[in-house]
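Section 5.1 Outputs to date
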Amino acid sequence: VQLQAFGGGLVHPGGSLILSCVQSTFTLDYYAIGWFRQAPGKGREFVAAISWSGTNTNYATSVKGRFAISRDNAKNTVYLQMNKMKTEDAAVYYCSAGGHPYYTGSSESNYDYWGQGTQVTVSS
């Protein structure tokens, strides 16, 4: 089972980008979804998460106020809207599905399924 992350690319500092996380073989309705990222030479870090219904969200301090996570269960898709981007946002972004539908924490061990990642580059 694998999630698919789309939407990465090159963006200028201060710009915006939206990532999508989709799954074509099973419904994401009952899963919390998390976004993580990994920059070169660094460990993977939590970015944001959303509960199965979209009621609860959680953000890393570094992106709070700039990024927004949302979901459309009818489309089996979760989005990460990234605004006011900084060079330090550059990384490979991964989406993941958690086993507990209400979990929006940052612990990777609570997420069971992962996508292949999409590259985000922030450069002038």
